[in-house]
Amino acid sequence: MTSKERIVRALRLEEPDRVPVSFYEPNPYDEETWRLRHPAYLRYVKYAKNSDIFAFKVAEMAGPQTVGGIETGRAFYTESEKIRVKKDEWRVGNSTYCKTTVTTPKGELNSITRQDDGVATTWTMKYFIENEGDMEKFFSIPYGPLTPNLASFYKAQRNLGERGLMLLSLEDPLCAVASLFRYENFLREVLASKSRMIELLKLMHERLYDFYEGLSRRAQQTVFRICGPEYVTPPVLSSQFFDEFVVRFDRELVKVVQDHGNFACIHCHGKLDAVLEKIASMKPDALEPLEPPPSGDPPLSQIKKRIGDKVCLMGYVQYRDLANGNKEAIERKCREAIEMGAEGGGYVILPTAGPITAPSERELENHKQLLISAKKYGKYSLK
């Protein structure tokens, strides 16, 4: 069975020849993957070639879209002659700072981000919306649908072949809205003016629905990873907010993805006990990364019992165990995860996250052990 066939069968809640195992984030066959050009990741990428690959492509986020720092009329999933976008970059020590300025009909919005050399994460130092005036500026931005450019996607898909499935990582409306604010300010706005936040979500949902539809119509047998639900999961907010801020909008994104023959995957870290059935009600094909207790809940055995007949479960290997544990512990955790999640099909074993800095020797050996153990314990007795 090819890796592509293996993953597809798992997503369809069937038993393949063995449980698919993946590092999830790295794509060793995409020439544009930054890890392929980083010497410290060579072994990590080499090991990834022995996994069942989800070939990540990160679609444009809600932040402004520019071409080489030159002003354009494209930002926040809209294209209009009434807005302009400009990027200014500078270096301080080992960090690159970027100020993004969006000129709207009611004035300027701007953010500042920082990215450190050798670290696969960007920190936001200043957020686009910090006061009521910024909110009014954001609402003044007119909407014009974007036409996604999939040339890079198609090239990566050709290179991947039967070694796995393409995966587009996208925001949902909640992620797109929450990332405009410092998180504590977002929560404050939710509690102080929920109706205003729902208006923002509606605005972003219209744009994202069109964006998803355009992508899913042109991408075949691709996993759409929908990010954002974790912003409002308990205990941060009550499960009622999950209905109003996530289910209401994301179920339509799930449907449009599936209507075009693709797979919808909900990405949600943290504790899921209070929202598991709500997630299943959106009818996604998959849910990840399923963090084990104490970071997440409930245990995989209970998740399997409650929604495993409706949703493919993916994950349950805690990244910090790969970073700090030993090979014996990885084998044990891998065996336990497969025992809880594999029966009857519909399970993919993978880490809850990937390295954002160069992996240590311990981390590399533990990732290698994950592959060995998953293939050892993950065999089905196919009829």
Task: Give a quick summary of the entry.
The chain is of the alpha/beta class and 383 residues long. It has helices at residues 3-11, 42-48, 132-139, 151-160, 173-178, 183-192, 194-218, 239-259, 276-281, 300-307, 319-324, 327-341, 361-377, and strands spanning 53-58, 74-75, 78-79, 84-92, 95-104, 107-116, 122-126, 164-171, 222-227, 263-267, 286-288, 312-314, 347-348. 39% of the residues lie in helices and 19% in strands.
Commentary on this structure:
The chain is an alpha/beta fold and 383 residues long. The protein has 2 domains: 3-59 and 148-377, Alpha-Beta Barrel (TIM Barrel), CATH 3.20.20.210; 63-128, no CATH class. The chain has helices at residues 3-11, 42-48, 132-139, 151-160, 173-178, 183-192, 194-218, 239-259, 276-281, 300-307, 319-324, 327-341, 361-377, and strands spanning 53-58, 74-75, 78-79, 84-92, 95-104, 107-116, 122-126, 164-171, 222-227, 263-267, 286-288, 312-314, 347-348.
